[in-house]
Amino acid sequence: MSRSAHPAGPRHADVLPEGHYSAPPSDLNVLDPKVWAQTVGRDGDGVVTVGGIDVKSLAEEYGTPAYILDETDFRARARAWRSAFGGDADVFYAGKAFLSRAVVRWLHEEGLNLDVCSGGELATALSAGMPAERIAFHGNNKSSEEIHRAVSAGVGRIVLDSFQEIVRVAHIAQSLGRRQRVQIRITVGVEAHTHEFIATAHEDQKFGIPLAGGVAAEAVRRALKLDGIELIGIHSHIGSQIFDMSGFEVAAHRVVGLLKEVRDEHGVELPEIDLGGGLGIAYTSDDDPREPHEIAKALTEIVTRECEAAKLRTPRISVEPGRAIVGPTAFTLYEVGTIKPLDGLRTYVSVDGGMSDNIRTALYDAEYSVALVSRTSDAEPMLARVVGKHCESGDIVVKEGFLPSDLAPGDLIAVPATGAYCRSMASNYNHVLRPPVVAVADGESRVIVRRETEDDLLRLDVG
Ligand code: LLP
């Protein structure tokens, strides 16, 4: 088989260059705490446990595939973010990463706020009792109906994303006899080092209002004139799965620059800035994410320094981590169905889910880890590709991972760090049913989002 590049590009990775693979870990049974949820370990029989429950029992009770979410870890991460920023800042969990009513309650209890970006996310938040004033409403094309609902509910802020929206929100708020607190989302011309499809702060994209050319300054000018809205700050989100803080530094510098312009022109010091989310997590042992306290310290120092230089009062900072809170807290549990060794290449391991429960590998070329979790094994490592059951050759969950060569149908394997953007981006492709989310903590497990059924599918199909 040729090992030169395939004309269709790297997705046809049957022809990867020699030496591409990382070396297998010395012991396949070891679970790297960087990529696994906090309470994950192995019991005396070598079966992986989480929250004090072993995965074989979880598979028996809830079936596979299933997202298994470590509630203790989720709460610990939420608390770590909250306490890292202290009382002078607000942490808005980005609901798009994963949202359910249980999650909303945990966030509420741990003192976090919530960022929603659709009517559906807003409905979920409100139905689980998140106080409306702790909700921020985002989106580049909110419908008038969504704006109406958000304003009527009394959300703490709406993040304005276009000139039309400035007027639309002001008009709707005024018609409701309200003055809606708003921020303006700007693009600061920073392209974070991340996959192109998920980079969001360079200028050539749909989000935000460009800072360049005085466009954002004009947006502020218009917003300050309208009675229906109260402009409380500027928002910037520079991308996702970012490890390097320098992008945030440039963004903060530019946002503060705009605050200074606003003060000089209007005599108004806007009291808040939001630096968005985007902090990276470890999907494999090669990733080295920052801890929340390091991130909080870096961001607070940057903003304070920039404001001192501009002779501005330091605004209240907010951040919107999604992935960094929920991503590492869950793994997807699959059962192995078929195993196909392809001589000299790799072994294809098919599981009972696939791109319908994790689209990130196909969409972003994302990398994941994988481990055998229903037992340990001392067999030689084999280079494996974990694939799903969909009718599509791009249906890959883990492009490249090592599993023991005695892997057999019926074994359980798990893919860690699937808490963010997996269930929330899941689909029904091939009418495959979306898996449940099972929360575990202190020896107890419960379904927080149930498995989809064929009845669910047929209910939408009106014949
Ligand atoms: N705030 C805003 C305004 C955002 O647009 C986002 C993500 C976040 C916060 C949260 O970002 P996080 O901390 O979770 O990275 N589906 C892609 C990620 C899309 C992110 C969209 N916006 C993925 O699976 O990687």
TrEMBL record:
Domain of life, per lineage: Bacteria
Residues noted as binding substrate in the record, renumbered to the chain: R323, R360, Y364, E392, Y421
Location of the active site: C391
Catalysed reaction, written as an equation: meso-2,6-diaminopimelate + H(+) = L-lysine + CO2
Residues with N6-(pyridoxal phosphate)lysine modification: K96
Annotated ranges, domain Orn/DAP/Arg decarboxylase 2 C-terminal: 332-419
Gene3D superfamilies attached to this UniProt entry: Alanine racemase (3.20.20.10), Lyase, Ornithine Decarboxylase, Chain A, domain 1 (2.40.37.10)
Keyword Lyase: yes
Binding site for pyridoxal 5'-phosphate: G278, E320, P321, G322, R323, Y421
Pathway membership: Amino-acid biosynthesis; L-lysine biosynthesis via DAP pathway; L-lysine from DL-2,6-diaminopimelate: step 1/1
Pfam families referenced in this protein's UniProt entry, alphabetically: Orn_Arg_deC_N, Orn_DAP_Arg_deC
Orn/DAP/Arg decarboxylase 2 N-terminal domain residues: 73-327
SUPFAM superfamilies: Alanine racemase C-terminal domain-like, PLP-binding barrel
UniProt GO BP: lysine biosynthetic process via diaminopimelate
EC number from the UniProt entry: 4.1.1.20
Cofactor: pyridoxal 5'-phosphate
InterPro entries hit by this protein: Ala_racemase/Decarboxylase_C (IPR009006), DAP_deCOOHase_LysA (IPR002986), De-COase2_C (IPR022643), De-COase2_CS (IPR022657), De-COase2_N (IPR022644), De-COase2_pyr-phos_BS (IPR022653), Orn/DAP/Arg_de-COase (IPR000183), PLP-binding_barrel (IPR029066)
Entry similarity comment: Belongs to the Orn/Lys/Arg decarboxylase class-II family. LysA subfamily.
Function description: Specifically catalyzes the decarboxylation of meso-diaminopimelate (meso-DAP) to L-lysine.
Name listed for the protein in its UniProt record: Diaminopimelate decarboxylase
